[in-house]
Every structure is written in C-alpha cells, then in structure tokens.
Task: inverse folding
C-alpha cells in the first residue's frame, strides 16, 4: 500500500492556494475558480467513498442520498426556522450519520452486492421523498432563499471565499483520512479488503470497522451537501438522483480507489468533463461516462492513480 | 354502468399487481440465471427489458413486421446484446472481484441507456396490444387482454426453463457450474461458455418481459434501473438463486406495489418495492425460499 508523503500534500496545498490568483490573470480560465468549488464539494464525498470502496472493499450506490439529506436538512432548518447555518450543518451531520448507521449496520454484515443494492434502493427512496414531501422540501421545484455562510461577521459572499472555505474542509478531511489509513484502523480495513476470514481470525471486528467507514463517508457527503446548499442558495431533487451516485462511482473508479489521491484526481476530471469539456455531447455525455467507466474497469483497475505503478513496471523490464 | 364495489376494486389491484409482478418475476429469474452460474449481480438486467420493448417497437411499428416475426427478431437481437455484454464487459476483466464486476455491469447499463436515448430519444413509445384493447370484465374488475398475455408468458418461461435445467444436458451443465465451477470444469464443462449462455438466456427473458409489458405501460430509455432494482427486490425476497422464489417474490412485490399505490399513495408507488427490498435485506436476507447454507458457499 502506498504511503501518503508529506511533500505531495504540501505541493498540492500550494497549488490550491495560488489557483484563484492564477485564474484571475487568465481570462479564459477565470470561471475555473467556480468549477473548483464544485470539485472541492465532490472531493469531500469521494474521499470518504474511496475509503469505503478501496480500503473497506464495500460499494455504495446511494451516496447522493446522504449528500441530499445534508443539503435538505441545512436548507429546511435555515429557511424555516432561521437557525444558525453552522449549527444546522452539525445537526445534518448527526442526522445523516444516524441514518447511515441504520442503513449500513444490517447490510454491511451481508456480502458485497447486497450493500450495493441496499444503498441503491435507499438512494431511490430518499429521492422519491425529496420529490413527494413538498410541504417540507418544495417538491420537484426545490427550495430557494437558502442563506449564505458567515463566520464571526466574515461573510462568505464571493466565489473565492467559498473556494477557500470548501478546500479548507477538503484538506481537513484529507489529512484526517490519511491519518486514519496509516493508523491501526487503516491496517484493519486493508486486512478486511484482503481477506475477511483472515482479518476475522486476527481479531479484527469486521462489521464494526465497515460501519465506521460507512458512517464516516456519509458524514462527509452530508457536509458537502450543506456547503452546496449554502453556496448555491438553491436546491432541487434532481441534483441528488441515482445518476449522481453513479457519477461518484465513476470519479472513484477513474481516479483509482486504492489510493486516496485517486479520489481527488477523479473528482477533478469528471467535474471538469461535465461542467466544461463535454458540452458538445449535451445529454449524450452519459455514453461517454459509461465508456470511461467500462474502459477504466477493464484496462486500469487501479485507476489513474495506478498509472505510475504500471509505468515503473514498464521501465524495469 | 356497473357500480364499483370495494371488493371489485381490490380484485382490480390484485390483477394489476400480479401482471406487473410477472414482469418483476421475469427480471428476477434473469438475475438468478446469471447469479447462479457466475455469482454476479447483473445491474444491466433492467436494460434488457427496456431494449426488448424499444426494439420491438422498431420492428413492429417502424419496420412494420407482423407480430409473429417481430417478436422472435427482437428476442434474438436482445440476446445478442446479452452475449456482447459478457464478451465486452465481463469476460475481459482480468482480476474479477465483486467490486469490479458490479462496476462493469453498471457501466454497461449506463452505456445501453445512453445508446437507447441516442436512438429513440426521450419519449415513451407505445405498442399495440397483442389481441386488442377491449377489456374483459371479471368480478367487477376490468382486465386488459394484455394482462393475460404477460401472465401467460411468465408461465411459458417457467415451463421452458424447468425442462431446460432438468432435462437437457446443457441445462444440467449450467446447474453444475452453479453448484461448483471447479468441479464442473474438471468433468469437461466449458465454464466460460456456460457464463456466455447464462447472459444470453437472461437477456432473452428480459426481452420477453419488455415486449409483453410495453403495450400496458409504454417504454422509454430510462426505465431499466428501476426495473432492475425491483426485479432484484423480487429475487432477494424469494431467496437469491431460487427460481420458485423469484416467481413468488415477483408476484408479491407486484401486488404490494399495486395495493400500496391504490390504497396508500400513488406518489410513493416506486418506493414500496424498494422498502420491501430493504426490510428483507435487513431481517431475512436469505429470503422466503433461499437457504443460508447455499449463500455461505458463494464467493460474493
């Protein structure tokens, strides 16, 4: 397993910090800062999901639901009850974590494809609820007028300010996750992925670790949802549909699920593809996504993050 | 005008439910055929149904072939898609794990969905009913003749499959692969061929489901995912891998959905089957007719 070095993290952090300045200098990419806010939001989700898939070997096709619950809890509590957005974000995390525990605890005891189908079914049910409970969620029209964020009088009122806020969250999540991977928990997770019976024999409490990771990934998705709601000031159910869950899967498969960097590479590439580079295909972009997912699964099972490893193998030959 | 009684209405829900349930049962049988041989859950199973409906519309309505020719032509074409799915998406994977296989079938499913949108657009398509649309009135319920065709085809599929698995050499070879692939290949069964056959067979059954249901509920490009997850619900409710279970599970899920939509809320129509799926997964994952022993020996 690849250790995550401190130097790449520092270089990456520097790139992220100077990016908005760079984007301001070049008109052609000046709107990239806005896209990078979304990349950050998706990174929050994929970091957790890649831990779940790559390290615990479990698959979820329902994370759009956790993302959506985070967004809707924040939206409902702030617009209807006028509560503090940060407090609402915290409540959303508690609710999402609780729901993830209830969904994950029974299905994670089952084998691989059961969690996939259970999360798929769960995601579709939540999506139907967003559409049907119009009294709470505004139905298919969604909710508008969600307030922006502020901290001790500092208003997050520009794209760049949100950019730094989101990426602050991403770096915290990234470093926390890296520490998790390189701790005993990470070793236990890798043992589970390698062989459940062997891990069990060594005294690893398999289902406890799987549930832990599942809940952790759901909480990150919830945070991402809350930030999304406050950034756009508007949400509607179609953002949180089944295809978004599949898109998350594509991000992780493309980036590479066995390496936490893969989560960031995948989220970045797919977000730029869908916001910027695939306009020509319009709604047929789904064919491109299908092709990417299939080709990566067959030819690059470790995703783009696995390419250096393959290249090293070629040089040694 | 006949008075609509409560009993008549309930009977109506039951008949509608059993019809939709027959479709779910066919999807569930398709899941089981592939699962038994390969231990893969084919997330693209619903796309076979969608393709069956839309390709039938192409042959019957667009080209103008008579029903008796368009039907087998559609089944053959969708079967080819099933074969391609195995050859292009499943077979090339060098180190199959449950994760990569699930992802590969999901990729195939969105590719098929996107291609269907490319060919047919986003509109739903209608197909004329096999024997007209004048309803038959039974016990105060109105039954479309097409309902009987759907249920009839489910019965035909069940009969053909039981003869195939119990009486033919190839069918028995497939069952052997399901029991123990290593032992099966030791006695000279070509496991790769059996996997190919399982995809072909379950694509064909999906096509029949799509062809027969389109005159009732129309068909459009994005119907596959929901059909797949409901069909999977049926398969799990009956016990994954069990054929009688798939039929039973399909009919029960269809009935629950129909009664739920009629009596509780039509907006949540699609949620009922999924809630049943979650409840079964949480409390009795081996299903009604499945056995825990069999699920233990499966790799995935």
Result:
């Amino acid at each position: 397993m690849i250790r995550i070095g401190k130097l790449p993290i520092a270089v990456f952090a520097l790139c992220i910090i100077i990016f908005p300045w760079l984007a301001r200098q070049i008109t052609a990419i000046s709107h990239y800062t806005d896209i990078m806010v979304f990349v950050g939001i998706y990174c929050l989700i994929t970091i957790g999901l890649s831990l779940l898939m790559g390290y615990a070997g479990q698959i979820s096709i329902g994370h759009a639901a956790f993302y959506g619950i985070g967004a809707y809890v924040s939206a409902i509590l702030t617009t209807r009850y006028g509560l503090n957005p940060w407090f609402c974000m915290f409540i959303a995390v508690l609710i999402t974590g609780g729901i993830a525990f209830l969904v994950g605890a029974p299905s994670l005891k089952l084998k691989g494809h059961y969690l996939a189908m259970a999360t798929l079914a769960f995601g579709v049910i939540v999506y139907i609820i967003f559409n049907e409970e119009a009294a709470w969620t505004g139905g298919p029209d969604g909710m508008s007028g969600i307030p922006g964020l502020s901290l001790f009088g500092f208003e997050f009122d520009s794209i760049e300010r949100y950019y730094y806020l989101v990426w602050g969250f991403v770096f915290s999540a990234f470093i926390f996750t890296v520490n998790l991977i390189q701790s005993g928990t990470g070793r236990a997770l890798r043992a589970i992925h390698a062989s459940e019976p062997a891990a069990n024999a060594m005294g690893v409490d398999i289902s406890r670790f799987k549930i832990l990771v599942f809940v952790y990934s759901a909480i990150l998705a919830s945070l991402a949802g809350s930030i999304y709601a406050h950034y756009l000031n508007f949400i509607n159910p179609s953002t949180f549909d089944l295809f978004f869950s599949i898109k998350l899967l594509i991000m992780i498969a493309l980036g590479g699920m066995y390496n936490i960097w893969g989560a960031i590479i995948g989220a970045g590439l797919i977000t730029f593809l869908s916001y910027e580079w695939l306009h020509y295909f319009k709604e047929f972009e789904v064919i491109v996504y299908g092709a990417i997912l299939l080709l990566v699964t067959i030819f690059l099972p470790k995703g783009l993050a696995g390419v250096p490893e393959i290249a090293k193998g070629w040089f040694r030959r | 005008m006949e008075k609509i009684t409560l009993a008549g209405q309930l009977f109506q829900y039951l008949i509608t439910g059993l019809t939709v349930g027959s479709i779910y049962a066919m999807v569930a049988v398709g899941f089981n055929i592939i699962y038994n041989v390969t231990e893969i859950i084919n997330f693209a199973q619903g796309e076979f149904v969608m393709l069956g409906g839309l390709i039938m519309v192409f042959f019957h309505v667009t080209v103008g072939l008579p029903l008796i020719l368009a039907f087998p032509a559609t089944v053959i074409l969708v079967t080819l898609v099933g074969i391609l799915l195995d050859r292009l998406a499943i077979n090339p994977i060098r180190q199959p794990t449950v994760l990569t296989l699930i992802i590969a079938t999901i990729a195939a499913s969105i590719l098929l969905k996107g291609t269907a949108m490319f060919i047919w657009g986003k509109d739903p398509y209608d197909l004329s009913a096999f024997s007209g649309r004048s309803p038959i009135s039974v016990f105060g319920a109105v039954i479309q003749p097409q309902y009987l065709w759907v249920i009839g085809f489910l019965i035909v599929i069940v009969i053909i499959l039981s003869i195939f698995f119990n009486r033919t050499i190839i069918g028995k070879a497939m069952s052997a692969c399901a029991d123990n692939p290593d032992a099966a290949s030791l006695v000279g069964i070509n496991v790769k061929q059996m996997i190919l056959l399982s995809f072909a067979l379950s694509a064909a059954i999906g096509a029949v489901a799509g062809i027969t249901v389109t005159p009732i509920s129309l068909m459009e490009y994005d119907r596959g995912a929901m059909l797949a997850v409901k069909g999977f619900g049926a398969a799990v409710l009956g016990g994954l891998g069990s054929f009688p279970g798939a039929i039973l599970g399909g009919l029960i899920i269809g009935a629950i959905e129909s009664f739920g939509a009629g009596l509780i809320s039509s907006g949540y129509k699609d949620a009922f089957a999924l809630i049943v799926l979650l409840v079964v997964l949480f409390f009795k994952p081996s299903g009604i007719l499945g056995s825990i022993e069999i699920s233990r020996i499966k790799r995935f």
About this structure: Chain B has a mean pLDDT of 90. The radius of gyration of chain B is 19 Å.
